[in-house]
Amino acid sequence: MSLLLKLAALIDWINTRVGRFSIWLVLAASVISAGNAFSRYGFSLSSNAMLEVQWYLYAAVFMLCAGYTLLRNQHVRIDLISNRMSAKGRNWVDVIGIVVFLIPVAVMIMWMSWPGFVDSYVNMEESSNAGGLIRWPVRLLIPVGFALLALQALSELIKRVAFLVGAGPDPLEKPVEHGVAASGDAQEGTK
């Protein structure tokens, strides 16, 4: 179990780095968006390439941060039901969901999106818009994003099984950063 927990920690580290890097993509997309609006309304200049860069950056944030979102336990959950369950019950539900749904779907989408990326790369597919960009970089985000999600799902599965067999802490507890719970609730972070 120790080796598997080290693998889970490595996957967590990778997705944390990707998630923190992606924060800067949001800033870049916002600056480009503001620049586009300023040039369009201030000088009547517009660029399809700049509009597509925004789209690429937002796509990168959403695709690359799926694994990070799972790591931080910020994904959609039915709290009304899960809050009434014991810690073991919640972890069992997650184990079943990860094994039956999350990993198979993430791997399937990754697998099915790879040929679309390869075809786009080989043919150097370009946007149909005048002055548009090549498409393969944004198509690559799909298999990469789902690979990161599948890896994080594996990490979460390892951590939940470790908890269930008594070899690790409850991974569903709110993560604490700098003494404050991730939800921003300072009082919960000090408990």
From TrEMBL:
Subcellular location: Cell inner membrane
Stored InterPro entries: DctQ, TRAP_DctQ
GO CC terms of this entry: plasma membrane
Alphabetically ordered keywords of this record: Cell inner membrane, Cell membrane, Membrane, Transmembrane, Transmembrane helix, Transport
Residue spans crossing the bilayer: 21-43, 55-71, 92-114, 134-154
Domain of life: Bacteria
UniProt-recorded Gene Ontology molecular function terms: transmembrane transporter activity
Pfam families according to UniProt: DctQ (PF04290)
Domain called Tripartite ATP-independent periplasmic transporters DctQ component: residue spans: 32-161
Main location: membrane
Membrane topology qualifier: Multi-pass membrane protein
Family assignment from sequence similarity: Belongs to the TRAP transporter small permease family.
Function: Part of the tripartite ATP-independent periplasmic (TRAP) transport system.
Quaternary context: The complex comprises the extracytoplasmic solute receptor protein and the two transmembrane proteins.
Protein name listed in UniProt: TRAP transporter small permease protein
Lineage: Bacteria, Pseudomonadati, Pseudomonadota, Betaproteobacteria, Rhodocyclales
